[in-house]
Write a structure and sequence with these properties.
mainly alpha, about 75% helix
Length: about 240
């Protein structure tokens, strides 16, 4: 999907991050507003993919589709995300006595010595494991709210059940995302550091930035593709998935 309409997807992605930056710059209210609005804007990528599958082109206007599609069921998803991740981080106190919480809240200063602490590393893994149910519950929730007219809690529960039922595919997807977000950038970083400064800046512009943009656009498109494959498998593209499955 990205290869077919690279310009449209990149414009959509850049506009999304520009809006993210502007909203978060608003004192006090900015970060809170973005927590509520993030699931709403995520619908924009779903709408772009839905339109493209039916012969259209991703457009900037798609980014605001969520404001016209069950808005009051979408906004609480952001709150659920923050509460769920916060609980997962606070659960790590069972492992490291609160060092990860201190790092997350700013009461603990970031240092190499801290990162080398074995208990902190285990706490990070523990918090990540605790956050998995939250991530899975939110994965398909925006699509279910928009395309299936589900309420907030129904969408969260259905998303979690669907992800668990397809755990092999979810695990494969997670491994591939980890590879693309950690391993590949790490290798690119090693290559860039080995180059002279003048060449390194060119390499960043030619290799790193295009890779990050292409990957992020593809990742957003994959949300729709995975939703489509699970909830509307076997349907032709000319069938309207806005009708509940």
């Amino acid at each position: 999907m990205f290869n077919a309409h690279r310009v449209g997807w990149l414009l959509l992605l850049l506009a999304y991050y520009a809006i993210t930056l502007v909203v978060q710059l608003v004192p006090l209210a900015g970060p809170i507003a973005w927590i509520l609005l993030k699931p709403v804007f995520s619908v924009g990528f779903l709408a772009a993919a839905w339109t493209q599958e039916r012969g259209g082109t991703p457009r900037l206007s798609h980014l605001f589709t969520g404001f016209r599609s069950n808005l009051w069921a979408l906004m609480p998803l952001g709150i659920v995300f923050v509460l769920g991740i916060s609980l997962a981080i606070y659960a790590s106190t069972l492992v490291d006595g609160g060092r990860l919480v201190g790092l997350a809240t700013g009461s603990e200063k970031f240092s190499e010595e801290l990162l080398e602490d074995g208990r902190l590393q285990v706490a990070m893994l523990f918090a990540a494991a605790c956050s998995i149910p939250v991530v899975l519950a939110l994965w398909f929730a925006p699509a279910l709210v928009v395309f299936n007219d589900a309420g907030t809690w129904a969408a969260l529960g259905t998303s979690l059940r669907a992800a668990l039922a397809n755990w092999r595919a979810v695990a494969t997807y997670g491994i591939l995302v980890f590879f693309c977000t950690v391993i590949v950038p790490g290798l690119l970083g090693v290559v860039v550091r080995l180059l002279p400064d003048a060449v390194a800046s060119v390499a960043v512009a030619v290799l790193v930035i295009p890779y990050v943009l292409a990957f992020m656009a593809t990742l957003h498109a994959s949300d729709y593709v995975s939703y489509r494959d699970i909830f509307h498998a076997g349907e032709a593209a000319d069938q309207d998935p806005l009708t509940p499955a």
